[in-house]
Structures are given as structure tokens and as C-alpha cells.
Amino acid sequence: MSFKSVNDILGVLEKQAQWQEQPFQRLLQFWAEVVGVVVAKHTRPLSIQRDVLRVATSSAAWAQNLTFGRQTLLVKLNEKLPTPLIDIRFSTAGWQSSPEVRNPQIAVLPCEHPSYLDTANHSPSEAKSHATNPNTAFGHWAEVMQARSQGLPLCPQCQCPTPPGELQRWLVCSFCAAKQL
Hints:
- The protein has helices spanning 6-20, 23-35, 37-41, 60-68, 70-80, 134-149, 164-170, 174-180; strands at residues 43-49, 52-57, 87-91.
- The protein has 181 residues and is mainly α.
- Among the domains are: 10-91, GMP Synthetase, Chain A, domain 3 (2-Layer Sandwich), CATH 3.30.300; 149-181, no CATH class.
- It has a 3-stranded mixed β-sheet with strand order 1-2-3.
């Protein structure tokens, strides 16, 4: 039985990790260094497929200018990659779908939604699960919905009980508002 030192084992593991490291991940690490800070702000590597690098650009002008200089970039990139690239394709496709460019969604609290109904006013028996079989569960759900809709104002178009917030916002229930769109 041979014993290897911890340093030998760590060295082997480090080499295995480098072999298993994906070329695209390595490319992302040194992209800005190779292309420069200004170009890096207007480009974003998307993928490597069949040894061709796809890069999104912020405009068609950037894509065209970089396409003219792609041979120089290929040489610089291939010096740092374990497997050489064959070509680089620049396009504006994919630039807008980037997570950094997307507009963040504004979170709406449930109580701010027009369809919100205050459930604190309802009896605790509504929270009980009556799922002994589908028919009793549906019957219980129908009773709860009917109790909740008691006292709600009616939609002027379809005469269905409608949360007050929907009437304030759209002047009709959400279903009638969707039909108008």
C-alpha cells in the first residue's frame, strides 16, 4: 500500500478540476481583460457551440466593428483557452434578454391588488380542510365562495359580485375588463 502526500493528492485534484472546467466559464473570467473595458461594457459572451463563440452586442455598429477585428480577438482568446475557438459571431440577439438589462418587476403586495378581499373578516371554519372526497371539498369551497361574495358590489356589466378594488380601478370586474382588452 502506497501513501501519497496531501500535496500530491491536492495537485491531482487541482489538475482534474482544470480539465473539467468548462471553456466558456474560463472565457468569462478573462473576457474584459482580452477585449478591454470599453468593449466589455458593450458585449456579453453568450455561449460556445461547436467551438464558435456567440457574443451579444449592445448595437449593430458594435457587432459590425467587432466582426472586422474578430481574427485578432480569436488569437488572444485562444492563447488563454484549453481548446481553441474556430470563430466568433457577434449579434445584437441576446443583448436584451440579459438579466442585467431587464427591468426589475415591481412587487405588488396582495393587499394592494384590486381583487384583494380581506380574509380576516371570515370565520375560521373556512381554513379547515374538508378534503374527505372531491364532492365534499367542492361543496365546502362553493359555500366559502358564496359566503365571501355576500355583500360585495355587483359588476355593472355582468352582475357578478366583484371586489371593490376592481370596480375602483376598472369600473367593472376583472373578467369584463379583460374582455374589453
